[in-house]
């Protein structure tokens, strides 16, 4: 079986997301017999990104296109990383992707396909999501809530109506939205923090993460926070 060696991970989120992806793969019961190449351990593909049924089309030759220490792009599965490199052969050996990779994945591949169903086509209650494919213009811009700037915004991979955001203001500020960004509320529970925010979701959308620089004896120390209530606390 082909396995993967990861090195030089620059953000702690990469490790957290990989662990979450592996747990998700086990819960979903990834079946190697469905894959086109018996030499590939398809459950290991969650180390490269969230699971997607189209990963079953990946071959050993496809995986050879990825550098050993390839970066993990939040929300983008392995098959799309490979597709992108096939369409851009000049990237050979390079371990970077454009910042628009996640948006390209959703535009061209319609989001994650799991058990024959696109996750973003339904909301958290299993009903058809009327906002799919229809961007929402926020009536309450985030910066107006805090005067902050340099925001990072992450959409829940299982429910696009749930969004978290962090910014750099008077300390780090965090927000959440339950209506696709039409309105925002301030999150609670993070204090004595500093500088640019970094946010991410677990692959199944049940846990939200925030990383920050916090005060520690007059210095700065990186800290990671987690939320199990969709970013409210």
Key terms for this structure?
disordered N terminus; 233 residues; three-stranded antiparallel sheet; alpha+beta; 23% strand; Lipocalin; 2 domains
What does this structure look like?
The chain is of the alpha+beta class and 233 residues long. It folds into two domains: 12-121, no CATH class; 142-227, Lipocalin, CATH 2.40.128. The protein is 19% helix and 23% strand. It is built from five helices and nine strands. It has helices spanning 12-28, 60-63, 78-87, 101-109, 142-146, and strands spanning 113-114, 117-118, 149-155, 163-169, 171-177, 185-186, 193-201, 208-216, 219-227. Strand 1 and strand 2 (117-118) form a beta hairpin. It is elongated and about 50 Å long.
Assign the structural class, choosing from mainly alpha, mainly beta, alpha/beta, alpha+beta, or little secondary structure. Answer: alpha+beta
How many DSSP-defined strands?
9
Give the distance, in angstroms, between the N- and C-terminal Cα atoms.
42 Å
Radius of gyration: 18 Å
Distinct helical segment count: 5
Helix content, binned percent: 10-25%
How would you write the strand order of the largest sheet? 3-4-5-6
- The mean pLDDT is 79
* Strand composition percent: 15-25%
The biggest beta sheet is recorded as: 4 strands, antiparallel
The sequence of SSEs as H and E is: HHHHEEHEEEEEEE
Shape: elongated
Query: pLDDT under 50 segments (min length 5)?
Result: 1-11, 121-137
Number of domain modules = 2
């Amino acid at each position: 079986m082909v396995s993967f060696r990861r090195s030089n991970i620059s953000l702690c989120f990469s490790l957290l997301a990989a662990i979450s992806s592996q747990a998700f793969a086990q819960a979903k019961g990834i079946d190697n017999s469905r894959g086109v190449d018996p030499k590939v351990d398809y459950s290991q593909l969650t180390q490269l990104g969230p699971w997607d049924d189209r990963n079953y089309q990946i071959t050993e030759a496809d995986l050879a296109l990825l550098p050993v220490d390839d970066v993990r792009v939040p929300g983008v599965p392995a098959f799309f990383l490979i597709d992108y490199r096939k369409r851009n052969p000049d990237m050979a050996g390079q371990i970077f992707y454009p910042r628009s990779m996640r948006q390209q994945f959703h535009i061209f591949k319609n989001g994650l396909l799991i058990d024959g169903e696109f996750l973003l086509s339904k909301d958290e209650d299993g009903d058809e999501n009327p906002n799919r494919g229809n961007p929402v213009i926020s009536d309450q811009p985030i910066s107006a809530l805090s005067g902050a700037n340099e925001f990072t915004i992450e959409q829940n991979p299982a429910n696009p109506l749930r969004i978290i955001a962090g910014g750099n203001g008077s300390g780090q500020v965090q927000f959440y939205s339950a209506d696709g960004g039409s309105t925002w509320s301030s999150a609670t529970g993070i204090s004595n923090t500093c500088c640019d925010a970094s946010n991410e979701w677990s692959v199944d959308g049940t846990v939200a993460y925030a990383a920050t620089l916090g005060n520690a004896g007059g210095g700065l120390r990186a800290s990671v926070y987690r939320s199990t209530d969709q970013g409210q606390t």
